[in-house]
Structures
1.
Amino acid sequence: MNRKSKLHKTCLDCQNLLEEYVVGELDSSTESKIVSHLKTCDICQHELRLAQAINTELSDLPKPQTPSEILTEVTAYVQSHPAKRGWLHRFLNIFTSWDHPRTVILRFSMLACLVGIILFGVHLNHQKVIAEQAMNDFNYAVSKIQYAFNKTGMGVNDSFASLKIDEASRRAFQSTTMATSNVATAIDRSLGILDKLTGNVSNSHNSQNSDSNLQPTSIQ
Amino acid sequence: MTEDEFVLLVRKHQDQVYWHAFYLLKNSEDAKDMTQETFIKAWQHRTKLRQKTVRAWLLKCVQNLCFNLLKRQKFQVEISDEDDETFEMLLHKNTHKSIPTPDEISIKKEIKQLVHRAIGELPPEMRSIVIMRELDEMSYKEIAKVTKQSVNTLKSTIFRARKKLREILNRLMEETDEPEI
């Protein structure tokens, strides 16, 4: 402290930078100022020698011999507290433990599989939605046709008795009715297939099917 | 991490951890205990360890354990003569190994011992950083990870530590009337 209080400001500045000077971390202009001051100042030269001695000693610090008991005792502890071997633990270890290259590859593979499964699920769901939409449109169209047929059958049936139609016309009408019945059966069958495809057998469809007996029963 | 992998890790890092503890505590027995405790903690927290940061983790752990021990010791007795002897023995052994000419032995040996005494008198936080930089030859970036400081702050701490060493060395030389270097 006494030594410092007697120092000139240039000496203080120089001594503050001696450590940086010793390890060569000063810019060239500051370094040249330090060098020129050191040439003329004995006190700073002494401090420089101390800084150099410290630098030498620090770069050559003795390395004590590590006791062999450390490894022995740590190994004994590890063996008496072994890692858990459960499948769940091993599975979780893939995500949480050591960065072994194998584990990293496994992690990436699992991540890729997971992403693949999610994308495939999204794709399937999208397909299902489209199929359901098509099914609903189809059901709507069928119900419309059914309604039209029923309406026509009822109209004909009502006015049939009063009409005087010859035998040929009656047969023609009956064959048209048969054809209609065949179309209705075909539509039912295709609806069944569609249901199987989408895996979504809608109750409404079934109820519609049960009502969709397109055969104009009232026609004799 | 399996047991075998962990034992390999202990083999790889035990020297550095032990040296760190030894220079902080200046006592081989305590340093051994702290090193063992560090590795036991590492085994208990093995799922958190990462290969890239394991050295920083171990050094931070041993540093904390040693600081805690030093704090406890502060409230107990001063460091015993026996402790200093162990530390001095190491320095003495090293002095004979590195100095060749008999004329230089007395001066250099004393300077060396004074420098090492000065290192021992550094505050533990500074000493720890100096050890990591000089003994473990760690980069500023690596030490910054352990001490959770910026690289610039760390550099300034290292230079402050060296200045502090010079101050301590000056004081010790005045006390012992050492010859000029």
Note: Residues 121-211 of chain A form one domain.
2.
Amino acid sequence: MADATHFAGIDLGSAFTKAVVITGDGEVVGRHVERTGISFETNADKVFDGALNEAGLTRAQVKAVGATGVGRRNCAFATVVKPEIGCFAKGVFFHQRGLCVVIDIGGQDNKIIRVTAQGQQDFFKMNRKCAAGTGAFLEEISFKLAVPQPEMNARASRATKVVSIGSYCTVFSATEIIHHIREGHDVDAIFRGVYESVVKRVLEMAPITDTAVLAGGAIATNPVLVDLFREKLKVPVVVPPSPQTLGALGAALYARDGAASDDTDA
Amino acid sequence: MTKAAKTRTSEEISVGEIRATNELKRILKDAFQGFFPKEGPAPKVAWCTSVGPAELLIAMGFKVYYPENHGALLGATRLANEYMGAANALGYSPDICSYLTADVGAFLQHQTPLTKAYGIPGVPKPDVLVYNTNQCREVQDWFMFYARHFKVPAFGVISPNMVNELEPSQIDYCAAQLKDLSFALGKIAGATLDHDRLAEVVELSRQTSVLWGEFLDFGRHKPAPMTFFDGCIQMAPAVVLRGTKPAVDYYRLLNDELRAHVARNDAAVKGETVRLYWEGMPLWGKLRYFSETLGGMGANAVASTYCNSWVFDDFDAKDPFRSMARAYTEIFINRSEAKKEELMKAMLERFEIDGVIYHDAKTCPHNSNSRFGMPQRLSAATGIPHLVMNGDLCDLRCFSEEQTTTSLEAFVEQLKERN
């Protein structure tokens, strides 16, 4: 344990499991992402080992591990367990000092988190029990139309028009899209409308009045969302490095700072 | 690396069950078995809404049954989702009150948890149905379903709603309806109203209400000796035995026990560090989940709008009709948005609240106060943060435990960082 100088964070999300390994200064030296699939436990091990491998480290060199995300309690080797809202706030604050609003678009949850100039989360809001506007929505549309997300993203980026998608429900949005395709609308414009609907759902959650910091897997894999947020928001829009692993970074920082888990006596 | 400590168990969180609850079970069993006496004639039965004119019905000799209580029981036993589909199929939408759809659905399938709980054959058949629209308009449609089925009369007290400051004319209006109702009920009861008996029943309701308020006020103590979730169980006599002596006797017993807890500084949540206010309906099928999730983090919901809705300040045996009219019209749910905010602010101050949880119940818009910007306005006015949580009173399809756990943990963490 004398050689244990590093820290790790594991974000066990509904769609992807992410790991980062950091130094005592918070520098990310290893990172790994895998689809979550059906076993949180197996994937936690896999991403941890993947990140360690990238860093050229062993588990013995890691002093503490923070776990976050929907499967945070399924990470057997975690020393600290924290909800992802605080982890995103902490991960974002590491890169973005000053008052800001985190917009996290994850697999099943959207979150808006206000972070104070001192790095404290002082307000947050999550989406309702509904997939519209989340990463799951984009996955569903991609699957339904048999168009991979990178292609959807590229086509939406080059679109010069937008076909609005008005449905609240993910399933009925897909039906609406098929209706537009049948009517002969430009497919690129339909894809742009799909991404616009995600942005609209998020902006309906709470007013964004300070610098917006974009986070989450959907942001990482769909850069057109960044363009659309920049188009719609009247505040600076920032994308920190590796937006998909910001929650894992926050968990690692909590582990480094010796935080106690929220749900424990520790 | 050492592993994170395990989540605290319910035994570690709580001082344990309130002992008086055994007596509560007994008096409720007595009350429900009273609908089906082993000897003598069956009582005339009136079904009544939970904030309806029970005193008048009791005074006229009816035994009173409360369908809303049955709805809550269906929710608490997690049976509601098994039954509400039958009501949906009859045209009662999944978007309307899930007390209604669960209760009607259970009735259509000849099921009730009352049989297992109290050993009675089923819900007692009504001779008359009486509702008050002070809570919502759904109660009218709910009771009319049974009026058609049983071919019995249904009478409604139509209350002015969205009341800001209650005006004398509004009290007169409701009091007149109650007086008229007494004549209509007399024909069914086969007797005229005994005014002395009404005064006696109103006095028992007043005492019940005062004692229930005293119980809820124990939540002011730091640490609080009980939680909102305890309140959801202990409120039963204030709702279904109001106007009877067993309710008064029970709350005396309960409050003696709570007084002893307060004297010993017993905490319902060990290490209480965060004091929460619960706005809106309980999620009946998830009381234990909320109690343990919040308790495990040292957070206690010490006060609520819901439990306080059965504290009636105005019952007066000297003026039964007008005092009933006032008490039933000025309930929180029936007030203007501005008045609700004023009442909420006073509660947040009185109970020294750190954060407010608003339950946005999918099928209960009337008792979901987060839909017109109130949380944002109250947080701005008081500096007390809030969390809006989606769910429902009975329909668990509207609730995501995973998402809620994340929200609760993040909210409590946020409040701890402020304290």
Note: Residues 166 and 330 of chain B are 7 Å apart (CA to CA).
